[in-house]
Known about the structure:
Layout: E1 4-7, H1 12-22, H2 26-34, H3 40-47, H4 63-76, E2 79-83, H5 88-103, E3 107-111, H6 124-132, E4 138-142, H7 149-157, E5 161-165, E6 179-181, H8 197-214, H9 230-239, H10 247-260, H11 265-273, H12 283-300, H13 304-311, H14 315-349, E7 359-364, H15 371-382, E8 386-392, E9 395-401, H16 408-413, E10 421-424, E11 428-434, H17 438-452, E12 460-463, E13 465-466, H18 474-481, E14 495-508, E15 512-519, E16 528-532, E17 547-560, E18 574-586
Parallel strand pairs: 1-12, 2-3, 2-4, 4-5, 5-6, 7-8, 13-14, 16-18
Antiparallel strand pairs: 8-9, 9-11, 10-11, 14-15, 14-17, 15-16, 17-18
Helix pairs in contact: 1-2, 4-8, 5-8, 5-9, 5-13, 6-7, 8-9, 9-10, 9-12, 11-14, 12-13, 12-14, 13-14, 14-15
Amino acid sequence: MEKKWSILSPEPDQVQCLTDTLGCHPVVATVLVNRNICTAEQAASFLKPSLAEVRSPFLMKDMDRAVDRILLALQRREKVVVFGDYDVDGITATSLLFGFLKHLDMDVDYHIPDRLTEGYGLSPEYVEKGAIARGINLIITVDCGISSHEAIRAAHNSGIDVIVTDHHEIPPVLPDAFAILNPKQPACPSGFTWLAGVGVAFNLVLALRKRLRDEHFWETRTEPNLKAACDLVALGTVADMVPILEENRIYVKAGLEVLASYVRPGVKALLDVCQITNGALDAWDVAFRLAPRLNAAGRLRHASMGLELLTTSSPEAAHTIAENLDQENSRRQAIEKEIFSEILRRLEANPQLLRKRALVLEQQGWHEGVIGIVASRLVERYVRPVVLIAVTDGMGKGSARSPEGLDLFKALKACDHCLEKFGGHQAAAGLTLKAENIPAFGKEFEKTVSRNAPVGLVPKLSIDAEISASEITPRFANELEQLAPFGTGNPEPLFMLSDMDVLSGRIVGARHMQMRLRPSNCVKTGPFDAILFNVNRRLTDDRPPKRLDRIACHVRWNRWSPARKGIRHGGRDRKSIQLVIKDFAAA
Length: 587
């Protein structure tokens, strides 16, 4: 599907002011203003994020109450369980909080539910058969719990306190928990609304460490350096696709440095199976190489495998687990490919389905741990909300995804009379419903999307600036690199270049086109290395056009080792500027 290109037009005076103040390239100043970073003070904070600038965790509603209760459990030697979610955000949050409480010598354990047999979130069944049966006194949820009314009520009735730490959207009525740490609740003054679940858990740990410091607890034992835990925060934050802004940007920047230092045996083993060795990491590595492998166990087997990887101190055990996760990820990819191909065939046979504003599809036998990824791919392809529902024994478990412009959580809320339960974010959600209610839900969801989503289904490409080839220099690439880490809320800068000759092109890897480009009107500039991913979507054969009228591209440093191109090693890596083409128009 062709994209609609839109070149952003920031205020020229603001761009000039930043250019003069920072001494940066005008295009870099343009990108900053496009990100709503308009003053020198904002730019300085953005370009040099520091853990010293993190705001107090005690700004979060109920933080004092949660800290008091946990320290009471420490004093009384009560049994505590950290209850997490099975995605990367939940795994990292569980690992972080469990590890800190263990460092306090608390009587603490963890539980991550099985996706297929227990489902998402704290359940009454776990409270009865797990917590009560084991004599648990305190449950601390991470990355879940904000909608677990029945389970929390059952725990309260049995004398078990529950502290909820979560970041998902707030239900109309809050559960009756002992304390709720969720920066999205209306009465929370912290402003931490963009935190991932692991970010909320990290703030709880920061608060606990501070209170214990004030009470001289650390005078008799080692006070933990919590920067070392930022690798977990970075993994969960990037994987959960929350905005990489404010505290999240600080955590991710610090966490990427920790990840690259290989302090944690599990991280070292995971980097090894991804063939990333002795080099700097970026958010792309986390999102597309590390996170899918950590997620694979929770999708197909049990997420505790990923948690064991992050908590083990044994390099040998870490290597074995990482290899198993890599194999599970390959199996996940095969299942995902099969379901995706099946859906494409169904849509080809029933083209009327694509005349709807939303896609709601169900099937017996779909693997519910994989359909969320397939839904995301369908959203990218067809630019509309997608709900895929796996049906088993008369019940459907669905994953919903949406492009920008529709609040998915609100859309599902409007259809809640058709659902047994649901929860999630603006762009991603999960739901459960009776199979007999799927047709009614599909009709109601279609009506809701039609009322609330933008009319056009043409994907948009927001371009930061039009640049000339002569502006692409090593200094320019270095300045762009300072804007990282990129991700949701801070997309990698995208530029338009015009009139480029294609000197050569060849297929590499899995259907990617590697090219050499040079501006048509200036033979003294360039040539530039360029790559276009997934050429089967953009070209009718394996040959590139002879000339490109315009391209939308990222400008990056491409680094490789002299020993083995494409794999980063220590020492002096080689690098060259590379244009990563997102879209083009042939002459």
